[in-house]
Design goal:
This protein is an alpha+beta fold and 171 residues long. Helices cover 39% and strands 27% of the residues. Strands 1-2-3-8-4-5-6-7 form an 8-stranded antiparallel sheet, with no helix packed on it. A hairpin with a 2-residue loop joins strand 1 and strand 2. The chain is elongated, with a radius of gyration of 24 Å.
């Protein structure tokens, strides 16, 4: 029985440590900052905030985009628009520049972008994952997970000390 409990403690410590590292990594990468699109394993990560690409990409979705050599009309891409990153669709080209707009926007919202402003083609959309990641990468959640990790590590030692002290005084 002690072996099973010890095994469960090890698994719990590993899970809490993984959550702490993943959340800390997301926080350090700035994924939850407006306009951020950090790169991870060759892909750009982006939390969609605008409602301009529905129904394909909704606010709160996590978007993964991969840089490419060239882009074609019809592709959804991540593009840097000043200090902001936006998920938009390529609707055409003119003089070597890309014409981009959101699927829910009309032609008046079209804008010209240089290919250097495009961060990558949208490869994967994880519906609703943005809210979970934003929560995971928050300081209060990371602090709580850190406290739980410390308690799981220290609690067995504290209970052994109390048990040993209790048996001494029962004679």
């Amino acid at each position: 029985m002690k072996g099973v409990i010890r095994g469960l403690q090890v698994v719990l410590v590993l899970v809490l440590a993984a959550v702490l590292l993943a959340g800390g990594g997301l926080l350090a990468a700035g994924l939850t900052e407006p306009g951020a699109a950090p790169e991870l394993f060759g892909q750009r990560l982006f939390l969609q905030q605008e409602d301009v690409m529905g129904p394909e990409i909704q606010p709160g979705d996590l978007v993964l985009a991969k840089p490419r050599e060239a882009y074609a009309p019809g592709e959804a891409v991540l593009a840097r628009d000043g200090a902001q990153v936006r998920a938009l669709r390529i609707v055409g080209t003119v003089e070597g520049r890309l014409i981009l707009r959101g699927d829910r926007e009309d032609s008046e919202a079209e804008a010209l972008f240089e290919e250097t402003q495009v961060l990558g083609r949208v490869e994967t959309v994880l519906a609703g994952a943005g809210a979970a990641l934003r929560t995971l990468a928050s300081v209060p959640v990371l602090a709580g997970v850190g406290v739980l990790l410390v308690l799981v590590l220290l609690l067995p030692r504290l209970t052994r000390v109390r048990a040993a002290a209790g048996t001494r005084y029962r004679r």
